[in-house]
C-alpha cells in the first residue's frame, strides 16, 4: 500500500469507528424501544410448520381451484412489485439505466 493511501486510511479510521459506534447505539435503542427480540424456538417451529403446510397445500389441485380472482390479482401485484424492486436494485447496482458498461473485445489490448 502506498504511503498516501495509508495516510488517507489512517485519517478516516477515527471518523469511521465513531460513526460505526453511533450507528450501533442507535440500532440498540431502536431494538430496545421496539421490543424486538430474536425468535424463540417455538416461533421458529411455528414458521417451519406453516411453510411446510403452504408447500403441501400448493401441491394439491383443490387449493388452486379455491383461489378467487381477487387473490390471483393480488398475487400478481405482489409479483410485479417484487420484480420492480429487483429491477431498481439492478439499476442501482449497474449505476446505469440500461445494460452494463462492458468494454468491447476490440478495445482491449491483447497481451498474449
UniProtKB/TrEMBL annotation:
Single annotated GO MF: proton transmembrane transporter activity
Residues that span the membrane, as ranges: none
GO cellular component: mitochondrial membrane; proton-transporting ATP synthase complex
Entry keyword Glycoprotein: no
UniProt keywords, alphabetically: ATP synthesis, CF(0), Hydrogen ion transport, Ion transport, Membrane, Mitochondrion, Transport
Subcellular location: Mitochondrion membrane
Main localization (coarse): mitochondrion
Cited InterPro entries: ATP_synth_F0_gsu_mt (IPR006808)
Pfam families per the UniProt record, alphabetical: ATP-synt_G
GO BP field: proton motive force-driven ATP synthesis
Keyword Metal-binding recorded: no
Family recorded in the similarity comment: Belongs to the ATPase g subunit family.
Protein name: Uncharacterized protein
Amino acid at each position: 500500500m502506498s504511503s498516501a493511501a495509508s495516510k488517507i486510511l489512517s485519517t478516516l479510521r477515527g471518523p469511521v469507528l465513531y460513526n460505526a459506534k453511533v450507528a450501533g447505539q442507535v440500532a440498540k435503542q431502536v431494538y430496545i424501544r421496539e421490543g424486538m427480540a430474536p425468535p424463540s424456538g417455538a416461533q421458529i417451529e411455528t414458521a417451519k410448520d406453516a411453510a411446510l403446510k403452504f408447500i403441501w397445500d400448493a401441491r394439491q389441485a383443490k387449493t388452486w381451484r379455491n383461489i378467487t380472482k381477487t387473490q390471483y390479482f393480488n398475487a400478481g401485484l405482489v409479483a410485479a412489485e417484487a420484480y420492480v424492486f429487483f429491477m431498481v436494485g439492478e439499476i442501482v447496482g449497474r449505476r446505469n439505466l440500461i445494460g452494463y458498461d462492458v468494454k468491447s473485445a476490440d478495445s482491449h489490448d491483447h497481451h498474449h
